[in-house]
């Protein structure tokens, strides 16, 4: 059972830097949120890891919930909830990978990346969703990279790491979802 495993905390400089995904703006927003959420003042020496964790999860969840307000529509449906549901599906699959058992020991796998192994053109609706996901930085287009599933090159997309605390997954890219 996943809840029986040791609880990972989102906190510390390295973790905050990594989940900000290289964005200085996001980095500063997370740091500000940690200070506001924990009600830390300027004289604080350090903020305990558990408090940082709660603040970072709060930040991530708030940003995930805000996706429902993204403007636009697709086939008469609001675009925000549609993109939110796609990202949620990726997050849920990532979470399921954490439960994967490969031996008698429980091995935790993570995934944030999607590799397109086919070279087929997406239908118009799927292409628009993919474009909107990348336009808003929800999926990051990593370009053509070496495939982990096959010899050769493929298109790879990474879920923005800022959402990993909301899904209780890791920001590490070890396994990929192959499509």
Describe the overall structure:
This protein is an alpha+beta fold and 179 residues long. It has 6 helices and 6 strands; from the N terminus they run αααββαβαββαβ. It has helices at 13-19, 24-37, 49-66, 79-97, 124-135, 164-167; strands at 73-74, 77-78, 111-116, 139-146, 153-159, 175-178. Helix 2 (24-37) crosses helix 3. The longest helix is centred in the middle third of the chain and has 19 residues, at 79-97. It is globular and about 55 Å long.
Q: How large is the share of residues in beta strands?
A: 15-25%
> Into which percent range does the helicity of residues fall?
40-55%
Cα-atom radius of gyration = 18 Å
> What kind of assembly state do the chains in view correspond to?
single chain
| Measured distance between first and last alpha carbons | 28 Å
List low-confidence stretches.
none
The helix-strand sequence is HHHEEHEHEEHE
**What's the mean pLDDT score?**
81
Main sheet strand line-up: 4-5-3-6
For the sheet with most strands, the description reads: 4 strands, mixed
Q: Work out the helix count.
A: 6
User: Can you tell me the overall shape?
Assistant: globular
Total strands: the figure is 6
Instruction: Return the structural class.
Output: alpha+beta
């Amino acid at each position: 059972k996943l809840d029986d495993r040791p609880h990972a905390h989102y906190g510390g400089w390295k973790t905050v830097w990594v989940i900000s995904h290289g964005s200085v703006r996001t980095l500063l927003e997370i740091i500000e949120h940690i200070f506001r959420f924990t009600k830390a003042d300027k004289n604080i020496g350090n903020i305990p890891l558990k408090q940082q964790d709660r603040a970072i999860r709060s930040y991530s969840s708030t940003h995930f919930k805000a996706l429902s307000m993204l403007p636009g529509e697709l086939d008469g449906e609001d675009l925000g909830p549609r993109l939110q549901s796609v990202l949620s599906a990726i997050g849920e699959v990532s979470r399921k990978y954490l439960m994967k058992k490969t031996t008698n020991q429980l091995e935790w796998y993570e995934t944030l990346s999607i590799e397109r192994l086919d070279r087929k053109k997406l239908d118009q609706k799927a292409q628009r969703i993919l474009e909107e996901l990348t336009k808003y930085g929800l999926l990051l287009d990593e370009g053509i990279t070496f495939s982990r599933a096959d010899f050769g090159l493929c298109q790879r997309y990474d879920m923005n790491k800022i959402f990993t605390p909301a899904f209780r997954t890791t920001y590490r890219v070890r396994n990929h979802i192959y499509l």
